[in-house]
């Protein structure tokens, strides 16, 4: 295998079996948003105490805040995509490897009205001498 194919294989291995990379954008977005909020509080403190502020600090904080919001949105979309992916795979919730202390039985009968009960002739219900079918 070439290096390019090995890198593609590694990326497929990481992204095909886990939603962690999709959640990473959400976590990084929340982290960026939290950091920008703390920096905004610090900048307000510095401004209220009368110290000089550079113009780039407010620009950096606003870029960090907007980037955090975008990453949170991307993380939410990633969660949706991950859940859709899990649903599309249609894998069962549980796999039973073996059953212990269970006897094999025939298939259980279905409960509910049978087709004979549903499609009986109307005279079967009006004739009192015949028993009416039992419906569950």
Overall average residue pLDDT: 78
State the end-to-end CA separation: 63 Å
Structural class: mainly alpha
Number of strands: 0
Describe the global form: elongated
Tally the helices: what do you get? 5
Residue ranges: pLDDT <50 for 5 or more in a row?
A: none
> Helical content, roughly?
55-70%
Q: Rg to the nearest angstrom?
A: 32 Å
Largest pleated sheet: none
Order of helices and strands: HHHHH
Beta-strand proportion: under 5%
Structural features:
single chain, 136 residues, mainly alpha, 64% helix, elongated
How would you portray this structure in words?
It is a single chain. This protein has 136 residues and is mostly helical. It has a domain at 25-89. The chain has 5 helices and no strands. The chain has helices at 3-16, 20-48, 55-89, 115-118, 122-126. Helix 2 packs antiparallel against helix 3. The longest helix is centred in the middle third of the chain and has 35 residues, at 55-89. The protein is elongated. The mean pLDDT is 78.
Chart the SSEs and their pairings.
Layout: H1 3-16, H2 20-48, H3 55-89, H4 115-118, H5 122-126
Describe the structure in brief.
With 136 residues, the protein is mainly alpha-helical.
